[in-house]
Amino acid sequence: MIIKTVDNVQEAVKGVKDGMTFMLGGFGLCGIPENAISELVRLNVQNLTCISNNAGVDDFGLGQLLHKKQIDKMVSSYVGENAIFEKQMLSGELEVELIPQGTLAARCQAAQQGFPAVYTPAGYGTEVAQGKETREFDGKMYVLEKAFKADFAFVKAWKGDKAGNLIFKGTARNFNPVMCGSATITVAEVEELVEPGELDPNQIHIPGIFVQRIFEGKNYEKRIEQRTVRQKA
Questions:
Q1: Is the Cβ–Cβ distance between 22 and 48 less than 8 Å?
Q2: N or C: which end of the chain has fewer CB within 10 A?
């Protein structure tokens, strides 16, 4: 059995360089690789292309990288609650490729499964399809979307073992599973790291073959993007 464990986040991100393309799991602030993002901020890598559903908020998640202007291009489906993202996009400082959410997932999954591209009906007849190949199947038009190519995928899981097998929890599952194995190197940070054999095989969402490095994260904040509470009666 190949052990994928690294001692800390510094070891986990070894090899990152300016100009690379990163995939980052999460939806809003749910299930984001907090430790990896903080380390990328500390390293101050520049000219990045980031593939992620959205860019967090101004002072947390990918918003920290945007604040330091480390990202040149965002490939996302949602601008979200991030005012810095919006400002940099409208000013032309940040290149943004907006993609239908299902297409974003499909392009990640295509890379994971070794497909060069997929056909999807999403976006046909809109700006999304401009300059792309289209084709008819059974009377319906589809757009050809290429699989993503990324240097690193950073994902967050609830539990993992030292062989890289992962279990996600609740909605934190989101884009994380389809980004595993979708890049040259997949780095998984987990809340709890256990020995091989301790996870129930029937509960594993992603097998270790899709993960190259795994470490136990620390000090998770797990912020809530928009907190809503019920008033007392």
A1: yes
A2: C
Banded pLDDT at 201 (limits 50, 70, 90): very high
What pLDDT sits at residue 79?
80
Q: How many residues does the chain have?
A: 233
Pairwise CA distance, residues 225 & 211, whole Å? 28
- HEC string for the chain: CCCCECCCHHHHCCCCCCCCEEEECCECCECCCHHHHHHHHHHCCCCEEEECCCCCECCECCHHHHHCCCEEEEEECCCCCCHHHHHHHHHCCCEEEECCHHHHHHHHHHHHHCCCEEEECCCCCCHHHCCCCEEEECCEEEEEEECCCCCEEEEEEEEEECCCCEECCHHHHCCHHHHCCCCCEEEEEEEEEECCCCCCHHHCCECHHHCCEEEECCCCCCCCCCCCCCCCC
Task: Please state the rounded mean pLDDT for residues 121-146.
Answer: 96
Residue with tokens 């393309």: 21
Instruction: Give ∠ CA 220-20-109 in degrees, rounded to 5.
Output: 70
d(CA 9, CA 13): 6
* pLDDT averaged over every residue in the chain: 95
Average pLDDT (130-138) is: 97
Is the sign of the CA dihedral 123, 125, 127, 131 positive or negative? positive
Does residue 226 surpass a pLDDT of 90?
no
Q: What is the pTM of this model?
A: 0.94
Per-residue pLDDT averaged across 30-53, rounded?
Answer: 97
